[in-house]
Design a protein that fits this description.
Length: 106
């Protein structure tokens, strides 16, 4: 088992916050591109802003949502693994309880 920093563990909310921050940065870039393009009437003047900020912003949104998705799936898998371990322990306890001879009443 590899040692990971605490913020990289599946139970940590930090990757989710990082994904949200990346997506918000993407939305900010799209707003910046829109603000720069809004005053331009010629398409050739708008294209550099759309390409540099708009498409980059869209890419950041996609990456941010992917980070949140992966972090959520990791957290769910970690929780499911812990639940399965608890279930296995309960099943072992039940199995050992059923194997014990019960005292008979006379």
């Amino acid at each position: 088992m590899s040692r990971q920093p605490g913020w990289l563990r599946a139970s940590s909310p930090v990757p989710t916050y990082i994904g949200i921050a990346v997506a918000v940065a993407g939305f900010v870039l799209i707003v910046v591109a829109w603000a720069a393009v809004a005053g331009k009437t010629q398409v050739w003047e708008q294209v550099p802003y759309v390409v540099s900020a708009g498409i980059t912003g869209l890419g950041l949104i996609i990456v941010g949502v992917a980070i949140v998705n992966v972090a959520t799936r990791r957290r769910d898998a970690d929780e499911r693994s812990r639940e399965m371990e608890r279930l296995a322990n309960v099943m072992d306890e039940l199995k050992s309880a059923l194997r014990r001879p019960s005292p008979r009443k006379r």
